[in-house]
Design brief:
Layout lengths: L8 H7 L10 H11 L7 H8 L5 H25 L8 H20 L6 H12 L2 H21 L3 H75 L4 H30 L3 H14 L3 E3 L11 H22 L3 E11 L2 E10 L11 H12 L3 E7 L2 E9 L11
Parallel strand pairs: 1-2
Antiparallel strand pairs: 2-3, 3-5, 4-5
Helix pairs in contact: 3-4, 4-5, 4-6, 5-6, 5-7, 6-7, 6-8, 7-8, 8-9, 8-10, 10-11, 11-12
Amino acid sequence: MTEDLRPGDEARADRLVRIGQPPRSRGEAMRKLVWVLPWLVFLASPAQDLASGHHTIGATAVGWAGLTAFVGIYLTIVFRQMGRPFRGGAVAVAVAVEWTLAVVLAFGFGSSWLGLFVYVSVMCGVTFPLRVAYWTIPLTTAAMMLAGWHAHDMDEAWGLFLVVLLVGYSMTGIRQLVATTIELRKARATVAQLAANEERLRLARDLHDLLGHSLSLITLKSELAGRMLPDHPDKAAQQVSDIEQVSRQALVDVREAVTGYRRPRLAAELAGAQVALTAAAVTAEVPADPDLAGVPDDGEAALAWALREAITNVVRHSGASACTVELLRRQTLDGPVLELAVEDNGSGGSGKGPGNGLTGLTERLEKTGGTLEAGRQKHGFRLVARVPLDSGRAVGSGA
């Protein structure tokens, strides 16, 4: 029996919100919107002020119109900033309009409207370059304090002073974190591509070193045999025999070299899986530095084939938008094992039973003493492959 360390439904839902990338579906757009809506709590005071009946009908209508325009612009700018931000001066104009609305409404309706400056500060931190945000946020805070002084309610103004100031600067930090995440994602893909290119160059160098001398020797002896054939057939036969021996040895060398290249390595397959899933617009969680100590070569190769088959199915057939790859060491009744789990939120394809790929994987894992489990879950498809580890190594339950 193995212990179940699969992430919960809430953690899986969090992974579906792609940081710094536009939503791919209506459902993902709604999940991103959920991150924005809780901040609308500061609108409760203006709405309550308008609903209290303390203002004339005309003033109330103007207030509702101004509040609706303010919220609409805020949600549009902040939501677009999560994926496809506006370019050019559109953002500056929008922030200027929001700043003006906040000042006019707060001066016109009183201290209940000071919370609007929180949203202006958020927009300054989210949209403006850092050098601009660093002075527009204090300017917004000062305008809020001035509005509080005008409304003769400095207690309310001082209560929001740190909120307006700090929330704007915190947004600048979040922006830098998102930018760093995007750059890290691109860098990982680039490193994986460079590693693949380096592997191809190494293969070319090794084949050149292996075959260069042998092919040169075969060419030389072939020329000698051709010149010896008319007058010295016995010597020509000896050259042909040497050519056969050299070619056989070259074939052995090539087979030994190619065998090492043909055996897939799990670390390389994990890097390739990250690149393939990212290219297919699938949100991916893939371990970057797997611990493969104590894993037999045949077992590692079997897990690498299983990962390649699983990622191929996710990209081509599942229609998934998120995929998680986990590599865990477990202690089972049969001994320590290394477990590879690949889970996606797709449909799992249209097949009614295990395909040829899964059948082949099962046979390959059985040869190493491993097992394969694959099937549809409530919210997707899950494949689990296990191979035995060397019993001399201590095994925990961590990744």
